[in-house]
Amino acid sequence: MTRLLIVGPPGAGKGTQAARLAAAYGIPAIATGDIFRHNIADKTPLGIEVKAIVDAGDYVPDSLTNALVTSRLDEEDARDGFLLDGYPRTLDQVSYLDELLASKGQTLDAVIRLVADQEEVVSRLRKRAIDQGRVDDSEAAIRHRQEVYARETNPLIDVYRDKGLLVEVDGLGEIDDVSARISEALAAREIAPVV
User: Fold this and answer.
1) What confidence score (pLDDT) does residue 195 get?
2) Which of 128, 161, 163, 189 is catalytic?
3) Higher confidence at residue 151 or residue 109?
4) What global pTM score does this model have?
5) Is position 14 annotated as part of the catalytic site?
6) How many beta carbons lie within 10 A of that of residue 6, not counting itself?
7) Mean local confidence (pLDDT), 6-15
8) Is 161 a catalytic site residue?
9) What does the pLDDT look like over 114-161, one tens digit per residue?
């Protein structure tokens, strides 16, 4: 089965492409935010701990995020493949994921990076904010999220590039076109969809 990560700046279409990839490759799309919300809603011990941290406005520490991801990857649907979105976010999480997979005799197959021009993404997110009446999505807030993403993610991208796992794809354009570019890039690495 296929084990993938997807990364890209906010507004690059990661969620949309993750859902399409999951369907095409027969693997679950696993977003860290969804894991947090699921555990909080189910009031699991980890969920209760995460809720207290989030309610206090703090970041969820790596140790807890790692525990939640480990638990999710142990679920039946993810044992033979997955697509992670939003994890890993730190170099320590990269190391943890590598060790976790190695303990199962597994490795990542590829890390898909959606590349998108910052001005184009900011424009797209501003339009969406206006259309959906999101007054808190100011241009300044959107630009700040882009800067945080770049600062936090660039070291991870370098690690995966050095490991030969990085697949860079133009993330702008029609949804079908981006999906086709991702599929072609993965096919070039002999990673084929199941459907």
Assistant:
1) 66
2) 128
3) 109
4) 0.88
5) yes
6) 26
7) 90
8) no
9) 999 989 999 988 988 888 887 777 888 888 888 888 888 889 999 999
* Cβ atoms of 124 and 137 closer than 8 Å: no
183 C-beta neighbours (distance < 10 Å), count: 18
C-alpha to C-alpha distance for 44 and 181, rounded to whole angstroms: 39
Rounded CA-CA distance 165/138 in Å is: 35
Could you report the per-residue pLDDT of 49-98, keeping only the tens digit for each?
Answer: 988 888 887 778 899 899 989 999 999 999 889 999 989 988 999 999 99
**What is the reported pLDDT for 108?**
97
Q: 3-class SS at 4?
A: strand
To the query of whether residue 124 is one of the catalytic residues in this protein, the response is no
20 is catalytic: no
Q: Could you say which of 14, 20, 113, 181 is catalytic?
A: 14
User: Distances from the Cα of 101 to the Cαs of 40, 79, 90, 97, 115, in angstroms?
Assistant: 26, 10, 17, 6, 26
Helix (H) or strand (E) holding 154: helix 139-162
